[in-house]
Design a protein that fits this description.
Nitrilase/N-carbamoyl-D-aminoacid amidohydrolase, alpha/beta, 636 residues, Rossmann fold, 7-stranded mixed beta sheet
Length: 636
């Protein structure tokens, strides 16, 4: 539960229709199993104490009393459990019978939620036996205790305020205005749905879509527990299709026609942060809502859900290809619009033979293709200097030839030496002046060529470099349009790989593959023969780690401690704990110290949910202190 993670489960007990004692024994078996797994919230199907398919047997007092007795025994049997249990049961009150979700905790029934929308079409006849939910909240007596009864109940944990549970039942999700909307607007971060949804062709896909989309729309976790084995098959078959979703993502799903408890962890802290961040999510609306408080013992939640090592990159090959194509389209469209607006005659790009400039060149070519202009209007300039290797210089030329763009070479070595002489710098000192003078000379060359050719300088720097400040201020940091500004380094690699996979010539494919195989480097220090002297990841750290940190810092505002915890799990086979912590500290130090470079970035298209544009997604003072974040890291 620390860091906001709640272990949750949905399960479909094997039932016997109208046999409350048998059903209770199966439910208790699942309860014990969930307890062993450390589950804190267990959701069971609609009317699971009796079975959903009892029909007119629901009118029988014996069945009604059997359900009440089973509910009382379920409460009594779970006195020592931390589980919050949501289970379906019929409940009679005021001369009417209601289809209810009973919410139990530590031996007590703490709330009853009646079903609002009773289906009475096709194979469903619920209005024959049950009465729809009433307005407001009543109190009923159960086992000598007053229990709140109504649809406007929120079950709130005292120790973890971000956890607030709302309940709706089966059909409630399928209607135009589900009760979960009202509950989420009142603060519910998790919705439980005890359901009895029969199985027909294609229904599972629709059900899954409903659950995921509702969790996305409401920025919540959603648990759907479906009736399964043991329900009557007179006219329907139930498949026990259980689902757990969080903010649009499916975390767990049971196979159809299986007897399986599914579990995952819902991050209520993340959901709360997302609601704060999303200004269109309304402020809390409490009309008619009653909060029912309960207590949990706070402890670490063992995580079973996975956290991808590359959160910016889809795991599926097909999804990754679609993502790359979409990003190329966004980048190329943005650049083509800028070209059309400025009426420039050319696009000028510094091409190094590395990944970033390669991607920018591919985008520039696409942009001109969109405008039906010749690719020769792209002026690609390679500017060798002290650290340039033959491999990168050759790859730059081969890439330009394969794409059919104009290729120029400007050796800047002599110009940089003159500059050293002008400012009195000793060339033997391989310091920041030595390195940055080369980067700024390259930018000056590109800007002047662009002026001469009525062109625009296309920037090549990526999102990861911007986050770390790994750019020379007013050097490669500056351009007239930065097409890669919101593409992280880990995604850049896949973009270039996608371009290689879809290349229309062997020459283009081969050079792209060799660029992918080249170590990332600014090549600002003299090479050792053909061996690159500077490897960026040896200096600032692995981009796999930094992009992981960047995603959770920017997208969700997670604390350093939580990001460290997730990184330990995601990278357990790649990096040790000390290395993960070392580079996390460096990430925060650089992220805060280098904001001044991001405060004056050139224009560039946003392609994903994370961007550092000072005009759009990220407004941060350049002199903000990192002390709070660093203090937390020091305590790890």
């Amino acid at each position: 539960m620390k860091d906001g993670f709640i272990k949750v489960a949905a399960a479909s007990p094997r039932l016997k229709v109208a046999d409350c004692r048998y059903n209770l024994s199966e439910i208790l078996r699942l309860v014990r199993h969930a307890d062993e797994l450390g589950v804190r919230l267990l959701v069971l199907p609609e009317l699971c104490l009796t079975g959903y398919t009892c029909g007119d047997l629901f009118f029988q007092r014996a069945l009604q009393q059997g359900a009440r007795d089973a509910l009382a025994e379920l409460a009594n049997a779970t006195r020592e459990s931390e589980l919050l249990i949501v289970a379906g049961t019929p409940f009679a009150d005021g001369g009417k019978l209601y289809n209810c979700a009973a919410v139990l905790h530590r031996g007590e029934l703490i709330g009853l939620v009646p079903k609002t929308n009773l289906p009475n079409y096709a194979e469903f006849y619920e209005r024959r036996q049950f009465t729809p939910a009433f307005e407001g909240i009543r109190t009923v007596e159960f086992c000598g205790r007053s229990v709140p009864f109504g649809t406007g109940l929120l079950f709130c944990c005292r120790e973890l305020p971000e956890f607030q549970l709302g309940v709706e039942i089966c059909e409630d999700l399928w209607v135009p205005q589900p009760p979960s909307v009202r509950l989420a607007l009142a603060g519910a971060t998790v919705i439980a749905n005890p359901s009895a949804s029969d199985e027909t062709i294609g229904k599972a896909d629709y059900r899954r879509s409903l659950v995921c989309s509702q969790s996305a729309r409401l920025l919540c976790g959603y648990l759907y527990a479906d009736a399964g084995m043991g329900e009557s098959t007179t006219d329907m078959v139930f498949a026990g299709h259980n689902l757990i979703a969080e903010n649009g993502a499916l975390l767990a799903e049971s196979p159809l026609f299986s007897e399986e408890l599914i579990l995952s962890e819902i991050d209520v802290a993340r959901l709360s942060a997302e609601r704060v961040r999303t200004s269109t999510f309304p402020a809390r609306q409490d009309d008619g809502i009653q909060r029912v408080e309960f207590s949990w013992t706070l402890c670490d939640t063992e995580l079973t859900r996975s956290f991808p090592v590359h959160p910016f990159v889809p795991e599926s090959t097909d999804d990754r290809a679609r993502r790359c194509e979409e990003i190329f389209s966004i980048q190329a469209t943005g650049l083509s619009r800028r070209v059309a607006h400025t009426r420039c005659d050319s696009l000028v790009i510094g091409i190094s033979g590395g990944l970033d400039s390669c991607l920018a060149l591919l985008v520039a070519v696409r942009a001109l293709d969109l405008l039906h202009r010749p690719r020769t209007d792209v002026i690609a300039v390679t500017m060798p200097c002290f650290g340039t290797t033959q491999r990168t210089r050759s790859n730059a030329e081969l890439l330009c030839n394969a794409l059919g763009v104009t290729f120029n070479t400007v050796d800047i070595g002599q110009a940089v030496r003159v500059h050293f002489k002008d400012i009195g710098h000793n060339e033997a000192e391989r310091d920041v002046v030595y390195e940055n003078a080369q980067a700024r000379e390259r930018t000056q060359v590109l800007m002047d060529i662009a002026n001469d050719m009525n062109g625009l300088v296309v920037g090549t720097g990526d999102l990861s470099e911007l986050a770390l400040g790994w750019a020379t201020y007013n050097g490669d940091h500056m351009s007239m349009y930065g097409v890669n500004a919101s593409v992280p380094k880990t995604l850049v690699r896949h973009m270039v790989q996608y371009a290689a996979d879809t290349a229309d010539t062997a020459a283009l494919r081969n050079v792209l593959l060799d660029i992918l195989d080249t170590p990332v480097s600014p090549e600002l220090l003299p090479a050792d023969g053909e061996n690159i002297a500077q490897r960026t990841e040896d200096i600032v750290g692995p981009y796999d780690l930094h992009d992981f940190y960047l995603y959770y810092v920017m997208r969700y505002g997670f604390s350093p401690r939580k990001i460290y915890r997730l990184a330990l799990q995601a990278f357990e086979e790649q990096f040790g704990a000390d290395e993960i912590l070392k580079w996390l500290r460096i990430f925060y130090r650089r992220f805060f110290a280098q904001q001044f470079k991001r405060s004056c970035l050139p224009d560039g298209p946003k392609v994903g949910s994370v961007s550092l544009s000072p005009r759009g997604d990220w407004r941060m003072p350049s002199d903000a202190s990192a002390s709070l974040w660093m203090q937390e890291l020091e305590s790890l």
